[in-house]
Specification:
- With 336 residues, the protein is mainly beta.
- It has one helix and 28 strands.
- The strands form six sheets. It has a seven-stranded antiparallel sheet, with no helix packed on it.
- A hairpin with a 2-residue loop joins strand 16 and strand 17.
- It is globular and about 60 Å long.
- It binds manganese (II) ion (MN).
- Manganese (II) ion binds next to strand 6.
């Protein structure tokens, strides 16, 4: 999806001191990040639960954006329709628990995003894409995750990759490892920095131990819970941050408070080690770069007053591209 905020702030994202396991709950090494509701606008006023970036933490490895949404009834109207919009300097992971989305991008990809499958779009120097829920979709439920590209790779050619991980049982849990590796299960999809991404499902009344790379920091986003992580309760919609140096997560699900199974997304990676600037759907390294990305999008695509350049074009979308919001008067909102 897009960041559809009408008045997005420009934010500086950086690794924080305290990325090692300290702060938060001293016994578990966990720091619980609450979500905030972000309205996406439009007549149906869908909203998402954003847990990253936020003031106390803006990066987990190279993961820089976590929007969690649904389950939302999309049977009225046209469903979810996100017109063509741009991205730079990042990768997007559209991860679904329910529903299907038709994806088209300016790298020439046309894909159906389905639950439990990785759809990884690398914006690199610039891409645009549209996302529309399929006519058969009644419920949309999922997460939109962004990965910041390290400086050495952020001008890469745009591309799109699809991968359907095979579910693997680890103890009582079922893992879908879509990026990196976890508990000996590896994704074949290459990454631009060392990182991991996986869905973990656990029936109620069960537990699992997940061995971690202690060089990584991690985040546990609870989609269905609550769950207990290393002795700390983590509620639905919360993102538990786990600092470096933690070698395993003991995850437990009691047998009364969860309907069906608990479900979480585990993300993690080595600290990015760079400061990045994020505004709307762009990631750059300074304010002037963001201004240039916005100018190119408006002139080349929205107003079509210049020839196609950075963002190419998207075929077969019936409607106008998404105009960029005005840049805020305040340049940068440092985080932390
Ligand atoms: Mn997008």
């Amino acid at each position: 999806m897009s960041n559809l905020e009408r008045d997005p702030a420009e934010v500086l994202l950086e690794d924080r001191a305290g990325g090692d396991a300290m702060g938060g709950d001293a016994a578990s090494g966990l720091e619980i990040l609450q979500s905030r509701d972000v309205p996406l606008g439009g007549p149906r006023a869908m909203s998402v639960r954003r847990t990253l970036p936020q003031r106390s933490r803006s990066l987990i490895g190279a993961w820089c954006f976590v929007d969690h949404y649904g389950p939302d009834d999309v049977t009225r109207g046209r469903g979810m329709v996100v017109p063509p919009h741009p991205h730079t300097g990042l990768q997007t992971v559209s991860w679904l628990f329910a529903g299907e989305i038709d994806h088209r991008d300016s790298a020439g990809s046309h894909a159906t995003v389905r639950p439990g499958e990785l759809n990884l779009m690398t914006a690199g120097r610039g891409i645009q894409h549209s996302e529309v829920s399929t006519p058969d979709t009644t419920t949309l439920h999922g997460a939109q995750l962004w990965i910041a590209l390290p400086d050495a790779f952020r001008h890469a050619e745009p591309r799109f990759e699809h991968f359907a991980p095979v579910p693997v049982a680890v103890g009582d849990a079922v893992l879908l490892v879509f990026l990196g590796s976890l508990c000996g299960v590896a994704s074949p999809v290459p990454t631009f920095s060392p990182l991991v991404g996986a869905q973990v499902d656990l029936p109620r009344g069960s537990r699992v131990r997940l061995d971690l790379d202690p060089a990584f920091e991690h985040g546990v986003l609870v989609d269905a819970g609550p769950i207990t992580v290393n002795g700390s309760l983590v509620e639905e919609g919360e993102l538990a941050f786990v600092g470096r140096g933690i070698r395993s997560l003991e995850i437990e699900v009691d047998d009364v408070s969860v309907e069906g199974s608990a479900r979480l997304l585990l993300i993690g990676g080595e600290p990015l080690g760079e400061q990045i600037v994020m505004w709307w759907n762009f990631i750059g390294r300074d304010h002037s770069e963001i201004v240039e990305f916005r100018r190119a999008w408006q002139e080349e695509v929205v107003l079509a007053s210049a020839g196609a350049g950075r963002f190419g074009h998207v075929d077969s979308f019936d409607g106008a591209p998404l105009p960029a919001p005005e840049m805020p008067g305040v340049r940068l909102k440092p985080r932390g």
